[in-house]
């Protein structure tokens, strides 16, 4: 896929993997719009547009899509990247009230973004939805019951949506990276944080896959 002049929307794009992805798309000539619920875009590189939007609020994501369509006339690629995490704890010690927030962001944030992007992509009869999930959405992990549950849900949604649009000029790609050194772990860094992947490595893998004539539709990125 040639990424030049492609209109790309990235949720959770003001920091971490989303910010690095935005730079990768920009380097390949894409027109990039990122959103963040905090609306902090001070360090965005010129050429990247920042819009304040909370992925758990469907109306805010609708407004984001409307702005992109008004400004550029289309949406080529929509990347559902926004995600949150809980510190690893046994089930008895897990804060299950906060786990509801995990589902709101990690699942429903992905659902709302996909649904709204797909509505536009059906009108234009082309487009790509990229859902950044996690290897925690493929395999259960000790002390990650809540996080894995939210990511398994996102995996099921992504795989089902891919089948729903199969045969059309719209594709759905699931990306499953292992742990990365990002602000996701600001609250409590895992003991093996230093061993986690550089988000630049992950972003390059994702974009390089898209540059292929036939991108892999389930991309698993493990630690080197």
Structural class: alpha/beta
| Amino-to-carboxy terminus distance | 26 Å
What is the H-and-E element order? EHEEHEHEHEHE
Q: What can be said about the biggest beta sheet?
A: 7 strands, parallel
- Helix percentage: 25-40%
Oligomer: single chain
Helix count, per DSSP? 5
What number of domains?
1
Shape: globular
The tally of beta strands, per DSSP, is 7
Q: What's the architecture in CATH terms?
A: 3-Layer(aba) Sandwich
What is the CATH domain class? Answer: Alpha Beta
Instruction: Look up the CATH topology.
Output: Rossmann fold
Mean pLDDT: 92
Percent of residues in beta strands: 15-25%
Radius of gyration: 16 Å
- What is the topology, as strand order, of the major beta sheet? 3-2-1-4-5-6-7
Full CATH superfamily name: NAD(P)-binding Rossmann-like Domain
Poorly predicted segments = none
What do you see in this structure?
Helices cover 40% and strands 17% of the residues. With 224 residues, it is α/β, with parallel strands linked by helices. The chain has one domain (7-221): Rossmann fold. The chain is globular and about 50 Å long. The two termini are 26 Å apart. The mean pLDDT is 92.
């Amino acid at each position: 896929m040639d990424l030049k002049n492609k209109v790309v929307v990235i949720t959770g794009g003001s920091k971490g993997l989303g910010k690095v992805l935005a730079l990768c798309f920009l380097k390949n000539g894409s027109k990039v719009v990122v959103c963040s619920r905090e609306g902090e875009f001070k360090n965005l590189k010129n050429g990247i547009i920042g819009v304040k939007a909370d992925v758990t609020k469907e109306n805010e994501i609708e407004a984001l899509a409307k702005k992109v369509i008004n400004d550029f006339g289309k949406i080529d690629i929509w990347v559902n990247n926004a995600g949150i995490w809980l510190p690893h704890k046994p089930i008895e010690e897990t804060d299950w009230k906060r786990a509801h927030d995990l589902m709101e962001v990690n699942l429903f944030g992905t659902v709302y973004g996909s649904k709204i992007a797909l509505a536009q992509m059906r009108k234009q009869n082309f487009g790509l939805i990229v859902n950044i999930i996690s290897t925690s959405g493929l395999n259960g992990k000790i002390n990650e019951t809540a996080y894995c549950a939210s990511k398994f849900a996102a995996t099921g949604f992504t795989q089902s949506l891919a089948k729903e649009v199969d045969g059309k000029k719209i594709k759905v790609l699931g990306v499953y990276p292992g742990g990365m050194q990002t602000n996701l772990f600001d609250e409590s860094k895992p003991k093996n944080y230093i061993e986690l992947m550089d988000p630049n490595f992950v972003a390059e893998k994702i974009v390089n896959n898209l540059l292929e004539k036939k991108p892999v539709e389930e991309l698993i990125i493990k630690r080197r």
